[in-house]
Amino acid sequence: MTGWLAEHMTAHGSSGILAAVLLLPALEAALPMVGALLPGQTAVVVGGALACGGHVNVGAALMTAVTGAILGNVVGYAVGRRWQARVLAPLRGRTRRRRYTERALGLIERHGGSAVFVARFTAVLRTLVPTLCGATGMPVRRYLAWSVVSSAVWAPAFILIGYLLGGAGPG
C-alpha cells in the first residue's frame, strides 16, 4: 500500500506529495464515511519518508500535514454541527459502526476537549470524533484549541516516523 501511495504521490513532484499530505488527512477527518477509506496518516508517514529522500522539503511537508489535519477537523466539526441528526442516525444504525460511534461519544462525554487529542492518534476515532464533536454541540473554541494542539503534535510525530523510516530504507 505505501509503495503504491508513494508512487502516486511523487507522480506530480513535490506538488503531488504536498497535495496528498494536505488532502488525505483533511478528508479523513472531514468526512467520516470517506475518511475510513483514505489513508491520511499513511500519507503523512510517506510524506516524511519522501522528505528524507529529498523529494520534498521536510518543513513544507510538516506544515502541510498540520494544516490538513486542522482543516479536516474544522470541516468535520462543521458537518456535525450543520447536519447533526443526519450524521448521527446512520452512524448508530449498523452494528459495527454503532460500536465505534458509541465509543467515540463516550470518549467525548468523559473527556470533553481532550477526546479530540486522543482521537487524532486513533484511526477510527480520528474519522468520527470531529463530526461527533460538532453534532454533540461541543463549544467551538474548546474544539478548535484541542484540534490545533492535537494536530501540532500528531503531524510532526508521523512526519518524523516517515523521515526515520525513509533513512532506514534499503541501500
What does this protein look like?
This protein has 171 residues and is an all-alpha fold. The chain has one domain. It has helices at 2-10, 13-30, 32-35, 40-52, 58-82, 84-93, 95-111, 114-120, 123-135, 140-167. The longest helix has 28 residues, at 140-167. It starts with a helix and ends with a helix.
Keywords, separated by commas or semicolons:
171 residues; mainly alpha; 10 helices
Number of helix segments?
10
In total, how many beta strands?
A: 0
Integer average pLDDT: 87
Shape: elongated
Task: Note the topology.
Layout: H1 2-10, H2 13-30, H3 32-35, H4 40-52, H5 58-82, H6 84-93, H7 95-111, H8 114-120, H9 123-135, H10 140-167
In short:
With 171 residues, the protein is mainly α. It has ten helices and no strands. It has one domain.
